């Protein structure tokens, strides 16, 4: 058997090979990153400083904003670095580290969306018991429990990814490291890695999917039985922002990971990756701020306080 040279660095294909596009893309994604940090940080600051927003619903929203900032910070700075240097080289250790944080933030966001669905279920279907069920200790435990489970799931993938060897100079068809692309360029037996992806993806993903969407079946049934049109409108408004974020995140992730992986689909893969890894953390605070009267009122109060200083 011919000896194969073990590689310790990988190559990212990036978004474009055209030199003329590197600077425009750098400026566009730098602007997107700054807007993402600003929007999500503003949400967190409003929730922390405004007593009207210190409720379980906004505690979960603030946690979602923190996850969005972390998610975008794992992918976009690396992309900006590659636009600037045009080398696109990344060490195996750095690649696997990036994979861990991408998995952690992505899976944590899925889990948090499920927790937020449960919060909406209790608020609409069991309003008289809301404060008893969704007290602060329960909220913190729900978030911490979800984060611990997501940390463990991400760590499992990373532990087995560290056992892989790489001897192919074929670039990863993405602008960041991800498990499927990493397995494609490995010269090791990846059966256990693929099996873990399938097992954890189906078991954990199915549970989170059911916990996210099943409460809305009961919620919609409860809303339709409400006598007052104003009450129905208020109930729909409290759910619409969350459902919009859920459909955007699930839609872009599912399209990115479950559509055809043919070679001629690499450009489509990159567009889908940009949507869920870059644009979703940007639009989440916009959706919640533009569709939420309480946050808009809180923002106006904050601006008025700043102008009076």
Polypeptide structure, described:
- Its main location: membrane.
- Belongs to the G-protein coupled receptor 1 family.
- GO terms for molecular function: G protein-coupled receptor activity; olfactory receptor activity.
- Residues 39-288 form the G-protein coupled receptors family 1 profile domain.
- The chain is mainly alpha-helical.
- It has a single domain (9-308), classed as Up-down Bundle (Rhopdopsin 7-helix transmembrane proteins).
- The protein contains ten helices and two strands, in the order E-H-H-E-H-H-H-H-H-H-H-H.
- The protein has helices spanning 19-49, 56-85, 92-125, 130-133, 136-161, 179-184, 191-224, 229-258, 266-290, 293-308, and strands spanning 9-11, 89-91.
- The protein has a two-stranded antiparallel sheet.
- Helix 1 runs parallel beside helix 9, helix 5 (136-161) runs antiparallel to helix 7 (191-224) and helix 8 packs antiparallel against helix 9 (266-290).
- The radius of gyration is 21 Å and the shape is globular.
- The N and C termini lie far apart (75 Å).
- The model is unreliable at 260-264 (pLDDT under 50).
